[in-house]
Amino acid sequence: MTLDELESFVAIAGGAGFTEASRQLHRSQPAISRRIRQLEQALDVRLFERVGRGSRLTDAGRALLPHAEAALASVRDGERAVREAGERAEAPLRLELAIVGTLADRPLVEALRKLRRRFPGAAIALRTANSREVSAFVRRGEADLGLRYHRDPDPRLECLALGAERLFLVVPPEHPVRTRRVASLRAFASDSWLGFPVRADSPEGSLERTLLAAGIERPSVTPVDSLTAQKRLVEAGLGVALLPRSAFREELGRGSLRAIEVANLGAVQPVFAVLRRRGLRSPLALALLERLQKPDAFSHASR
Questions:
Q1: Is residue 39 part of a domain?
Q2: Which residue(s) pair with 275 in the sheet?
Q3: Residue 149 maps to which CATH number?
Q4: Phi-psi region of 26 (alpha: psi -120 to 50; beta: other; left: phi over 0)
Q5: What's the predicted TM-score (pTM) here?
Q6: Is residue 133 a part of any domain in this protein?
Q7: What whole-number distance in Å separates Cα of residue 268 and Cα of residue 291?
Q8: Do the bridges between strand 258-262 and strand 157-171 make them parallel or antiparallel, or are there none, so unpaired?
Q9: Contact, 99 vs 44, CB < 8 A?
Q10: Strand spans (E) along the chain
Q11: What are the φ and ψ backbone dihedral angles of 105, each rounded to 5 degrees?
């Protein structure tokens, strides 16, 4: 069992598939397939089973995955520790940061600007993903710190609450409700709703639960696993959605979406920092986290 084999296995198991894994790892698809065959031969099990044009983990593959992720994360921790010590102690500090794209807003921008002033020459690599992917990057050691919506229940991760983004009702420009503020969501009981699919890692984020609590019986909710797709569908008049203002500020500015404030809605998206338990904590990650945990850090995120 080699690190190259484990790296290929984790990339495929994370949802990339064989073709995307070859692109991510800069290897040919036959080379990726060969690594998986060698790993299966070493363990004398099948790790994947073909499903149509894709693949999914077998029971043995699911059993191996957390250990493979932990092994790769430990190796990456070792590489970072070497960079920050010994003969390379003078090398520039580096931060690998994974965030949900809509969190790249004023609070984070201000925190990163202050981080650069505090650590001149520091290298900051930022990648955007959905909440589930952010957790995966941190769990595998590909990111020092992650910022996502909702708490991840994975015991291998430590989640620290940073604040919350207030949610606004987003409608197409021609929606019959013309006011900027309404008393409740009941005025939209007949609308079709667009929301993210409910996942085990964010049950509190259920749109249907929010609508039921607002007094809408049997709401029509269509799961759409893409923020961009939700906005385009709302623009097309195919539904309405609840989104943080940071997610639709551009569309609001050009008039392709309208925001309606709902009195006493109380719907928010909690923002969490994610770190790997017992993982190496880089100085830059700790410094950024210190700034983001200040009471005022996300105070403007919902405005």
A1: yes
A2: 158
A3: 3.40.190.10
A4: left
A5: 0.73
A6: yes
A7: 22
A8: antiparallel
A9: no
A10: 48-51, 54-57, 94-100, 123-129, 145-149, 157-171, 181-182, 192-195, 220-223, 241-244, 258-262, 268-276
A11: -120, -170
Residue type for position 180: R
**274 and 133 belong to one structural domain:** yes
C-alpha span between 257 and 230 (Å, rounded): 11
The rounded distance, in Å, linking the Cα atoms of 144 and 58 is 29
CATH assignment at residue 25:
1.10.10.10
Judge whether 298 lies within some domain: no
Residue in 234, 238, 243, 236 with CA at minimum distance from that of residue 262: 243
Q: Mind listing the pLDDT tens digit for each residue in 39-72?
A: 999 999 999 888 777 788 999 999 999 899 888 8
Please give the pLDDT value at position 240.
Answer: 96
Query: Quick one: tokens of 235?
Result: 């623009």
Give percent of the chain above pLDDT 90.
Answer: 40
Q: Which two tokens mark 138?
A: 């941190």
118-129 pLDDT, tens digit per residue, is 998 888 999 998
Range of the domain at 280: 82-163+270-292
Q: Which residues of 158-181 are buried (b: 16+ CB within 10 A; e: fewer)?
A: bbeebbbbbbbbbbbeebeeeeee
The model's confidence at residue 303, banded by pLDDT at 50, 70 and 90, is very low
pLDDT tens for each residue of 79-103: 877 776 755 556 678 899 999 988 8
Is the distance from CB of 72 to CB of 10 less than 8 angstroms? Answer: yes
One domain, residues 147 and 195: no
